[in-house]
Each structure stands twice: as C-alpha cells, then as structure tokens.
C-alpha cells in the first residue's frame, strides 16, 4: 500500500514514527515488544529504561547517568518483514513538551497508545493536538485488554469526541477482563487468541470465513460469542470502514486492541504501520520543499544531546534524513555556516547498541557526534542551500535567576548554560541590566534536572532563585524600531543564547502596552530555530 509508487524501494519501505501516550499506558512495554518482534532483542525485558512508570526526578537523573540507554532509546531502528521501522522516542513527562514537539517534526506518523480502562488521558490529548497541527497520521493501540477495560464502543466514542477524529476498528476484542480471549482481526478475517501463559509468545491465529464459520463455536465460549456477534453487527452499522486515504490525511485513525505485556496485538499493529502508515514524506523548507527521492542528500537536526560521555565534551545531533541516500564519510554542507562537514562517524540506533551508520536513506535517523557546531534546526545537504522550516522554539513559561555557588565561577556557569541552551534543555537570557542569567523552562522539573546536570557534568553547584521577571518574548521588527524600543525599555531588555533580543517582564499588561505603543515592533512567543 503506497501512494508513491515512484519512490526508490529503500525509501518506500521506511516507516518513521513516534509513540504518544499518557504515562503508564504501556509505551515502554510496547516499544520492547516492537524490538522483540523486530529481532533487535532476544528477550523482552532488556530495554528497561523506565519500566515502572513513576516519573520522578530520580528517574530522569538515572536516565542521565545511564546515558547509553537514554540515547539508544531516543531513536531505534529495527526491521520487521520487509519494512524498516524508525521509532523516535518522545519524553513522557509534560515538563519536556518542547522537546516532544520537535521530535514530532522528525516523524511521519504517530502511534497513540491508550489504556483500555482509562481511555483518552490528559497527556494523550495534548500530544494528539500537536500531531493534529501537522496533520500527522495516527494509528491507535488500545492496550491492557487483558484487564478489566471499558466497553469497546465507549472507548471508540471517547476518541471520536475528545479528539475529533474518525475511528475505525481494525480488530475487535472478544470478552472483557478475565474473560478476554483475543481479538477478531477485521482486516484479515482471522481470530487471534491470546496466550496468557507465555507473555512473549505470538498469538495463535485462526483463519475464519465470515461470521457464520463454524470455527467460531470451536474457539469462543457461547456467552462471549453472542455478545461479540451483536457488537460486530452494530459496529458495521455505526462505525466507518477503513479508508487508507483518510488515515494518511490524519482524519481517521484505525484502532487495534491488544495487550502489550502479553505480546498480543503487537504484530498486527506493526503490520498496520507498514500498510497504512506513510512512507517518508516531503519536508517543508526554504526556498522549496525537499522530496525524499531527490538524489541530493539533505537532513535536519531536531534534537541535540550533550555530554554523552562526561570525559569528552561531545554531543550527538539527531538528524532526520529528508532526502537521498547518505553514505558514511560523505561531505555535507552545513547550511547555517555554509561550511563543509565530513560525516565520518555517524551513528545508527539499532536497538540497544550504537553502531556506525554505513548508510542511511530518507526517513532514517542518524546521530552525528560533534563539538557544538550542530544546533537544533540546522540543515545539512549535498545540494543547494535549503533550510528546513517549522522547528519552533517556544517562550518559556517559568523563569528563574541562576547563580554559581562560587561567584568566581560565573564564566564557567555561562559556558554550561550556553551548552544547555543549544541542546534545547532550557532557554537562557542575559538581561542587559545587572549581572547574572535568567533561565526559562516549560516545566519545573527541568530546573531540577538542570541543576543536577550542571553539578554533575561541570562540577558546579548552582542556585536557582526567584526572578523579577515571569515572561519572555522575542522582539522583532524593523531594525531602527527595535533599537529605539530597546533603548527606551532598557531594564526589560535582554538577549537569548543566539544573541536575539528579548523583552522580559512580569506583567501581561506590559506586553499589551508594547503592542499599543510600538506598532512597528512585535513581541512573539515562538521563534523558528535555524
Ligand atoms: P509507559 O509509562 O507508558 O512507558 O508504561 P509501561 O510500559 O512502563 O507500563 C506501565 C505498567 O503497565 C507496567 O507495570 C506494565 O507492566 C503494565 N502493562 C503494560 N502493558 C500491559 C498490558 O497489556 N496489560 C497489563 N495488565 N499491564 C500492562
């Protein structure tokens, strides 16, 4: 199933996606089973990045310590049947939502995991809305069907209503909770029976010939069968049938029911991603769109992770390949600086190991170790100077002042802060008045992680303290107007880590006033990264 028969086969077989879910719905477990079926790990249980999902500070710090795991968990590639899957991880905690947003710029589709007992939860809703902004195709997995779960129609209704998307069942559960025996695979007319004894075993699958096949009675107890038949009749009447085009356009989501921990429904979902998920998509760029099949190689940085090895201050830039066939050693032009860069040691994230990437195609994610040249939003290419668009930076919602425990170390602190700003872990502003820095984040947990990392990676104890400002806005407009505005509002002006002018304030009233008094200047809450 492809809408681009002209794509080179290597590109057409790629599926690059992320999983969106509320903490505890089963994202980690599902990822593990993907890798298990993808042959990347021998036994489930090897990827234990954050198993018991209590998202506390120590979890994040542990992940920071275990850099190996958190890095390979950032992007994972595996093969299943003749498809190559690239799974890009999104941070589960809402405090890291900016990171999540950027991650979603690097994928072509999302798998939405919901808990069958809980339905659409708050974090799922938020992430879904981000996907909607980009019209990303979404495939839904309703997990934990081995437990007491809600009525199937109720779950489908809730998704349709809360998320305003058509839902079409790809499978249908038979029995609930302890009585759950498996699913009817609507797309293939098969009955899949769950094995509760062996959690890593693939379900027994029975071919069925329509609703009247006598095999139903053989496998399904009479009282479950009656209810199931009634359900399926009603589903046929009330719910839309699968329309692959609507799925690709992001207006319809197919839903599979399963149990990740029992490996049930996972392979059907993987095949669904292959059959109904999009191949690598065109990438919006200036001055023109990049097509995946172009001969020239192009890719963009959507994430930077620093200090993976505290002994060498190295960083890895995560690059989504947008076009062409990349091979190791290739010389790419770094568009922002117009300098050539030989990419001699790129990393491909094959499951839990980091391996040298010999080649990568449009759709793949590679890691490029560097010393800070590569920033979020940067484009690399063998062709003309194209700049990928649509990777935003958001004004932080929380601001705090930061000081080094030892005042003599403030230069040192500046270096550390700039590093984290480039990594996208925080915004750093230098007010033009007075000394010190102001750090801005989206969620409070980020301050704690930052303080610990500065101490751990730079040996520098720091103190965060209340700032006189609570909001920051980027200032743009005509150069003279901006200069005039800055001169008249000196005590509110600062610069960000790129040297761009920001307006700092505590009052929304101030922001409104600027709008009225300086019609030539605009204050914005987002900025394009490049
Ligand atoms: P995450 O926070 O979304 O990554 O969720 P996890 O994968 O860590 O799962 C949260 C909890 O739910 C863990 O205790 C899992 O063992 C459990 N879990 C995951 N999938 C299933 C399932 O299909 N059935 C049941 N009963 N529990 C599950």
UniProtKB/TrEMBL annotation:
Organism domain of life: Bacteria
Tr-type G domain: residues covered: 12-281
Annotated Gene3D superfamilies: P-loop containing nucleotide triphosphate hydrolases, Peptide chain release factor 3, domain III, Translation factors
Protein's UniProt keywords contain Metal-binding: no
Any matching Pfam family: GTP_EFTU
Residues noted as binding GTP in the record, renumbered to the chain: 21-28, 89-93, 143-146
Keywords: Cytoplasm, GTP-binding, Nucleotide-binding, Protein biosynthesis
InterPro entries, sorted: EF-G-like_DII (IPR053905), EFG_III/V (IPR035647), G_TR_CS (IPR031157), P-loop_NTPase (IPR027417), PrfC (IPR004548), RF3_C (IPR032090), RF3_dom_3_sf (IPR038467), RF3_GTP-bd (IPR041732)
Compartmental location: Cytoplasm
Keyword Cytoplasm among UniProt keywords: yes
SUPFAM superfamilies xref list: EF-G C-terminal domain-like, P-loop containing nucleoside triphosphate hydrolases, Translation proteins
CDD domains: RF3 (cd04169), RF3_III (cd16259)
Main localization, broad class: cytoplasm
Family membership: Belongs to the TRAFAC class translation factor GTPase superfamily. Classic translation factor GTPase family. PrfC subfamily.
Function according to Swiss-Prot or TrEMBL: Increases the formation of ribosomal termination complexes and stimulates activities of RF-1 and RF-2. It binds guanine nucleotides and has strong preference for UGA stop codons. It may interact directly with the ribosome. The stimulation of RF-1 and RF-2 is significantly reduced by GTP and GDP, but not by GMP.
Protein name: Peptide chain release factor 3
């Amino acid at each position: 199933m492809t809408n681009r028969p002209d794509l080179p086969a290597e590109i057409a077989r790629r599926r690059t996606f992320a999983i969106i879910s509320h903490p505890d719905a089963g994202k980690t477990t599902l990822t593990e089973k993907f890798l298990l079926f993808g042959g990347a790990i021998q036994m489930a249980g090897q990827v234990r990045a954050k198993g018991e999902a209590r998202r506390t500070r120590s979890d994040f710090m542990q992940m920071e310590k275990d850099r190996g795991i958190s890095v390979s968990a950032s992007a994972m590639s595996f093969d299943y049947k003749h498809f190559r899957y690239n799974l890009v991880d999104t941070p589960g905690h809402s405090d890291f939502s900016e990171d999540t947003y950027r991650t979603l710029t690097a994928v072509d589709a999302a798998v939405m995991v919901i808990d069958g007992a809980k339905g659409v939860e708050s974090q799922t809703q938020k992430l879904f809305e981000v996907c909607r902004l980009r019209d990303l195709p979404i495939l839904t997995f309703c997990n934990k069907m081995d437990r007491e779960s809600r009525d199937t129609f109720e779950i489908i209704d809730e998704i349709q209503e809360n998320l305003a998307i058509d839902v079409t069942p790809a499978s249908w559960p038979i029995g609930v909770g302890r009585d759950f025996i498996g699913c009817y695979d609507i797309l293939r007319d098969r009955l899949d029976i769950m094995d509760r004894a062996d959690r890593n075993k693939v379900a027994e699958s029975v071919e069925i010939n329509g609703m009247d096949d006598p095999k139903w009675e053989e496998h399904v107890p009479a009282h479950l069968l009656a209810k199931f038949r009634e359900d399926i009749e009603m589903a046929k009447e009330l719910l839309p049938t699968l329309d692959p085009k609507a799925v690709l356009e992001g207006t319809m989501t197919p839903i599979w029911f399963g149990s990740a921990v029992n490996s049930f429904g996972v392979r059907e979902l993987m095949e669904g991603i292959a059959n109904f998920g999009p191949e690598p998509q065109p990438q919006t760029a200036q001055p023109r769109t990049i097509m995946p099949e172009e001969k020239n190689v192009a890719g963009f940085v959507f994430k930077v992770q620093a200090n993976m090895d505290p002994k060498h201050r190295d960083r890895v830039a995560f690059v989504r390949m947008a076009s062409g066939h990349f091979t190791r050693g290739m010389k790419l032009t770094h568009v922002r600086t117009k300098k050539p860069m030989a990419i001699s040691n790129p990393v491909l994230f094959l499951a839990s190991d980091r391996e040298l990437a010999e080649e990568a195609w449009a759709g793949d994610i590679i890691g490029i170790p560097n010393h800070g040249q590569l920033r979020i939003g940067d484009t690399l290419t063998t062709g003309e100077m194209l700049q990928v668009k649509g990777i935003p930076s958001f004004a932080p919602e929380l601001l705090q002042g930061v000081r080094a425990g030892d005042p003599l170390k403030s230069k040192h602190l500046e270096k550390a802060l700039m590093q984290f700003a480039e990594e996208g872990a925080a915004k750093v502003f230098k007010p033009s008045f007075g000394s010190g820095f102001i750090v801005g984040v989206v969620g409070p947990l980020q301050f704690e992680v930052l303080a610990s990392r500065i101490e751990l990676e730079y040996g520098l104890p720091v103190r965060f303290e209340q700032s006189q400002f609570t909001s920051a806005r980027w200032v743009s407009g005509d150069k003279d107007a901006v200069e005039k505005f800055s001169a008249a509002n000196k005590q509110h002006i600062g610069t960000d880590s790129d040297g761009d002018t920001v307006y700092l304030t505590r009052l929304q009233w101030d922001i409104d006033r600027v709008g009225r008094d300086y019609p030539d200047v605009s204050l914005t809450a987002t900025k394009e990264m490049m």
